[in-house]
User: Which sequence fits this backbone?
């Protein structure tokens, strides 16, 4: 058993007994880990404040390979993401990529690219003043790519034409779309209209730090979200019932009640 150190994003934390906490973290060096932080909830704890979900901390822990839970020895905050923690909407969105990783990653599967993607997603969410949902959509697309399910959005996979028609037909199994002429009529497809395909192409190439700039109408935003979530669930196991998505939808519908009467405007 050795003492190890790594930067880590805190994905999830729950109370254990009177003073301890069980944490799921995505570390840069060791992949996802479950840690027990003994005494972390007492006022004297040296960890206090360094173990909040959706922050980056440097953690030190006792590592024994293939043990279900590792023991945290020390933690220091590196990136607190104060704007995420100050706004309910941002915090609800930050929970989504964290829960997706928590539910889909195996413990101790080292994936530095995924760690980088998560930190970039949270950083973009922290600083953007508006357009936050776009950041999560870019995360979905990059996460699919890292999981081995890149979406082909550049051309029809039958005839390779790049021009966009009014409607194209996406097949989840192929990770690609077809024009009307190339579609096998028996295929069960997801219809992508011109605007949605062009928006997806934009998400597919934009840096995360710029993703917030898109101005998307609410109905079209819902269509993009439905396409991306269906795609994720089709390929990645464990994402059927995400608490974070349910919570975010609930939060949005409460907000909508407050703004009743407002026509289909742009998102936040
Ligand atoms: Zn075609």
Assistant:
């Amino acid at each position: 058993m050795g003492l190890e150190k790594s930067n880590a994003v805190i994905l999830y934390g729950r109370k254990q007994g009177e003073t301890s906490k069980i944490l799921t973290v995505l570390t840069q060096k060791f992949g996802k880990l479950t840690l027990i932080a003994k005494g972390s909830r007492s006022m004297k704890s040296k960890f206090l404040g360094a173990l909040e979900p959706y922050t980056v901390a440097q953690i030190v822990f006792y590592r024994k390979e293939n043990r279900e839970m590792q023991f945290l020895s020390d933690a220091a905050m590196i990136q607190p993401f104060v704007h995420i923690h100050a706004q309910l909407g941002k915090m609800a969105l930050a929970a989504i990529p964290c829960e997706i990783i928590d539910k889909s990653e195996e413990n101790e599967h080292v994936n530095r690219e995924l760690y980088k993607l998560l930190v970039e997603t949270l950083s973009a969410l922290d600083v953007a003043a508006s357009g936050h949902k776009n950041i999560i959509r870019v995360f979905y697309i990059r996460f699919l790519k890292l999981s081995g399910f890149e979406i082909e959005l550049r051309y029809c996979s039958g005839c390779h034409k790049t021009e966009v028609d009014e409607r194209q037909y996406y097949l989840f199994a192929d990770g690609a779309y077809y024009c009307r002429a190339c579609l096998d009529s028996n295929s069960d497809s997801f219809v992508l209209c011109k605007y949605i395909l062009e928006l997806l192409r934009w998400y597919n190439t934009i840096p995360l730090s710029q993703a917030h700039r898109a101005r998307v109408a609410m109905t079209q935003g819902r269509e993009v979200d439905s396409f991306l979530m269906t795609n994720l669930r089709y390929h990645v196991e464990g994402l059927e019932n995400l608490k974070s998505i349910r919570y975010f939808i609930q939060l949005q519908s409460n907000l909508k009640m407050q703004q009743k009467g407002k026509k289909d405007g742009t998102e936040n």
Summary: The helical segments are 82-86, 88-104, 112-127, 132-146, 194-205, 218-235, 243-258. The first strand starts at residue 2 and ends at 16.
